[in-house]
Design brief:
With 184 residues, this protein is an all-alpha fold. The chain has one domain. 84% of the residues lie in helices and 0% in strands. The protein has seven helices and no strands. α1 runs antiparallel to α2, α1 crosses α5 and α1 packs parallel to α7. It is elongated and about 80 Å long.
């Protein structure tokens, strides 16, 4: 794989990572709101209905909100997304310079050094972010010349990355409902 292709894939992977972190931030906020609303509804139902005691459910959900809030704060999705965005903007500038120098058959060593410095200042993208890039360009003729084909293993990895995200969300959103059903 040539340098410009590697830089392009890294930039695109960092874009995917930034977008993933933005989505995680949004989902996290929705999840906290969902759990809070669930607690409010349960509390109101508990006040109106003396037959069912929801104190245990309210306690469990309150603890979950606390744990999820601390986790979300520690993950710092929004700031990490902004740092990755800053990285891929810098990589884009280098990418344009690489194109100019490659056309003129000039030395790329200074740009390689700058590229390495940029990568050192930022977290890496995930393998799922990279697989997403490969999936997006799998039918491109230039991709086929530069890379191995998008194999069955690549497809499985791509599907697992997507399924894992959906599975996590379903579990997190189902926890209050499962807890409620187990108490009833």
């Amino acid at each position: 794989m040539n340098f410009s292709d590697r830089v392009w894939k890294t930039r695109k992977s960092r874009i995917n990572a930034s977008e993933r972190l933005k989505l995680n931030d949004f989902i996290s906020q929705v999840l906290i709101t969902y759990y809070s609303l669930f607690i409010i509804v349960i509390t109101i139902v508990d006040m109106k209905n003396n037959d069912i005691n929801f104190e245990v459910l309210t306690l469990i959900l309150s603890i979950l909100i606390l744990v999820i809030s601390v986790f979300i704060f520690a993950m710092n999705y929004k700031e990490r997304s902004l740092r990755l965005q800053n990285t891929y903007i810098k990589i884009d500038k280098i990418s344009r310079e690489i194109s100019k120098k490659e056309k003129a058959n000039e030395d790329l060593s200074e740009l390689e050094r700058q590229y390495d410095e940029i990568l050192e200042c930022s977290e890496n993208h995930s393998s799922c972010d990279y697989i997403q890039v490969l999936f997006e360009i799998k039918d491109d003729e230039n991709y086929k010349k530069e890379n191995q084909p998008f194999t069955f293993i690549s497809w499985v990895s791509f599907i697992w990355c997507k399924a894992k995200k959906v599975l996590y969300m379903l579990i997190l959103f189902a926890i209050p409902i499962i807890t409620l059903l187990s108490i009833l």
